[in-house]
Amino acid sequence: MNSLKTIGIAVPLATFVAWGLLALAQLWGSVVSHETFTKLTISAVIVIGVSVIASLVIRSYIENEKLKKEGYVDE
After folding, report:
1. Separation of alpha carbons 53 and 13, rounded Å
2. pLDDT of 48-74, one tens digit each?
3. What separation in angstroms does the CA of 23 have from each of 8, 33, 36, 37, 57?
4. CA–CA separation, 42 and 54 (whole Å)
5. What beta strand segments (E) does 1-75 contain?
6. What integer best gives the mean pLDDT of the chain?
7. How far apart are the C-alpha atoms of 45 and 43, rounded to whole Å?
8. What is the rounded end-to-end Cα distance, in angstroms, of the chain?
9. Cα 25 from chain centroid?
10. CB-based contacts of 11, cutoff 8 Å, min separation 6
11. How many CB atoms lie within 10 A of CB 41?
12. What pLDDT is attached to residue 1?
């Protein structure tokens, strides 16, 4: 289950860092067209949002199953 935590942290962080570098490059020089940059920005927001939400749902499910297994939560 640690791999899920790592993925849940690594994917949004890597996406954010990559987008940040692209944004800086775009700020100082025209690396991609305005349309492409906008599309990449929207895509980055979606990837970050979906991965954060998915990791929260998975973490909640795992914690709930653990509590059920230990007898703290009724079935």
Report:
1. 14
2. 999 999 999 988 998 999 999 988 877
3. 23, 12, 12, 8, 30
4. 18
5. none
6. 91
7. 5
8. 22
9. 22
10. 47, 51
11. 14
12. 61
CA distance 19 to 40: 8
List the structure tokens of 36. Answer: 């492409």
> Residues 6 or more apart from 61 whose CB is under 8 A from it?
none
Burial class of residue 8, CB neighbours in 10 A (0-12, 13-18, 19+): middle
| Residue located via tokens 């749902």 | 57
Which DSSP category does 60 fall into? H
3-state secondary structure 26-75: HHHCCCCCHHHHHHHHHHHHHHHHHHHHHHHHHHHHHHHHHHHHHCCCCC
What is the mean pLDDT of the segment spanning 22-50? 96
Give backbone dihedrals phi and psi of 33, rounded to 5 degrees, phi first.
-70, 165
